[in-house]
């Protein structure tokens, strides 16, 4: 029997399959038997050798798993985007059935929408209901005969809002393959979607790649909006190198930089400096300061271009640009913070109120209900810029749009610069000038910056007045803590304790429960604001002056504890009546542990003040000492119960309930003692007056 070449080829193809190892033995026996009978047996031997080599190569090659569908979608932009709701377990058959069913409904809708405008409206409505597959199928079918670029834009925007950057880029490539030319809005959507992507490095690479393609090969050249969007992507990612590379593509025609362009770059420089300061990056303070100064110098060089374009009427200044430059300067040294005040004078025509020879117009009374900041013109402020670099303008209302109009951000910037310069005495001038003359209604950040400036200046009087005028929604524990800290630092002021009492009254009247740490700071202010009591004793050294000073000191401590007593009782009682339901006393204790520790620390501070007043001779009289001893006993018992509650082992719930009952009885007995003591003190006061 002869063996032809066709049979050998068929046999070689069969050997490459799964049954090759089984047929290889018989094949070798047959070919060996007939090889000597035919002259073309050498050809058969060569075929066998090639087949054996292929088999051995197949056996030695390790098995590899096919890549997943998600990885293909992430790395291959040339493959068309698939549908989301196809069951992957069904394979190709399930996908075909799903597409056929979807296509049937889409054709019915398309037959009633011949206009691309209505198709785009339907796509937008479908995407708002998360019907992405239907919208994608309709857009693909409509692209066969219509120009539906707006519908493609809706799809790309939807994917980018869902943070599916690879899918959006793949859809953008498919849009071009289907002869749907991307318009300017398409690129704007892609760049802005890259800016909000949670993967900044990938977003920068995709945005710069598309932008460079538009510059070199694209039929549609990028404009200023596209350039700003790509700059925003680079700025959010912290890639300054790519940012300045994109900035070099600006020109004087369609990509002319505007105020938003410079704002993005300045904010990127500021965020880079702040990240450098926070992370430290293994550098010493001098190196960090040097890097921050390098960013500030780049910002100053950029500001020269801003002023040049502004003077040549190629750019309109706005508050965002001025504030971005000012915030960059606040990160620097004293000279840079001085430049913030010059900047406000140059760009907003706000005079340097820290100068002694400045002349201000009469200011109207504050009217927080009015909002006339938009109507106030720089020329109506009655102040002229002293900076030689400020542009000269005729004093008329027509020149009002030349200057940026200040608002809450400008007020916060000025107060921050004054705080860094420690020129806090001028903070009230800027506050009154901007809130009254420009009718700026302060927000929470403005109040906080003003409070911080006054606290750095240790001005307890203005701090107390400011906290009294705070809107109730802006008041918080930090506000009162900073106010009491200011009173502690202003201990040379004889009225510091009176200002602390005013702040304490505001806290008690505006909050349901007072802050324990703020109460401790208030008590510390009463203990430290005593230098004016001992001034006469230090000058004379007489025993009489010493006893008089101790008496004033003791009465101040007693007044502080007496003012704290009722709010502290309310705060302590709140621990016995929790607002949230709990399943066991242990869970309640675990939830209230921090609160109980704070209240207990405040009680111990009150006990320390009482002990000092009771043990120091001359601070309290005999009748007052008896009254405070009774209070001290009740407070000490409360502290002991809290200690047993927090640090005891094996206590049952009944003992805790008995302790709470003892606590209530103690407070009730103490209230009765307070009534009797107050009535006796009133009788003594009337007798002394008579």
Automatic annotation (TrEMBL):
Question: PPR repeat boundaries?
Answer: 148-182
Q: Where is this region: Disordered?
A: 55-86, 353-401
| Repeat in keyword set | yes
Task: Point to the regions of Basic and acidic residues compositional bias.
Answer: 58-74
| Residue stretches of biased makeup (Low complexity) | 376-401
Q: State the UniProt keywords alphabetically.
A: Repeat
Superkingdom assignment: Eukaryota
Record has Repeat as a keyword: yes
Looking up InterPro entries in the UniProt record yields: PPR/CCM1_RNA-binding, PPR_rpt, TPR-like_helical_dom_sf
User: Per the record, a Pfam family?
Assistant: PPR_2
Q: NCBIfam families in the record, alphabetically?
A: PPR
Q: What is this protein called?
A: Pentatricopeptide repeat protein
